[in-house]
Transcriptional regulator (Kitasatospora aureofaciens), 278 residues
Amino acid sequence: MTTRTMDTAQELAAFLRSRRERLDPGRLGLPSHRRARRTPGLRREEVAELAGISADYVVRLEQGRGLRPSAEVLAALARALRLDPGERDYLFDLAGRRRPGTTGGSASGVAPSLAHLVDDLSPLPAMLLDRRYDILAWNPEMARLLPDFDAVAPSRRNAMRLCLLHPAMRGFYADREQVLRDGIAHLRAAWAAHPKDRALSCLIAEFATQDADFARLWSEREVGVNGRGRKVLRHPVAGALTIDFEVLLPLQDPDLRLLVYRAADEESRAALERLCAR
């Protein structure tokens, strides 16, 4: 990944193009034109008309000329492009105009009470992550659930790095593609909110350089945070496990994420208990 890839003006341009090209003119009730469409999606002129701004301004935005659109223009573009809430936040963050009501704290440290909470959640596997997916705290159940976790150097304990580059976890997730999609969507949103976080930028560049799947999915420009769901795990000792996960955000530390796992069925619960009793 080159430095240019991490430039917010160029990313804003690419994001606007990608969202314009995915829209179906027919579904938006736009009139048909005699001239055949050479590219998918809407034309820039159509986006400009829907947003109530000039076509020339849309062109300059999509060319990455370093413009700083106002919050009103961004809101109009978000409506015209049918962006979902996560995509709207991403658009505002790229333009340096975080929407009212959103927060952006610092992940500079972990309050002792949060670290204790992770322990107190036993026997549920739990861990605390920052915006880069660095694992800041974990309880014994989570350490046993993540294959070969104790062998990973503390400086390398990053949830995305484990998924991508830790050999013991290569087949850990039954749907690895979806796990990567969710993780990358979060990292992209985090990068837009914190473009000056050099550690985060370097981490993304490292992953894109070392893993082809990450590079491919990063280029799709999906954004958002998946706060709950279900995963099927393939543990080398416990076997197949189905777990439900929940992501909680501390009010005073909004850049941190508390991830909690729960067995989704009795068979998985029994397997977890056997694993943690070893």
In short: The chain is about 45% helix and 10% strand. Residues 146 and 169 are 8 Å apart (CA to CA). The domain at 112-277 is CATH 3.30.450.180 (Beta-Lactamase).
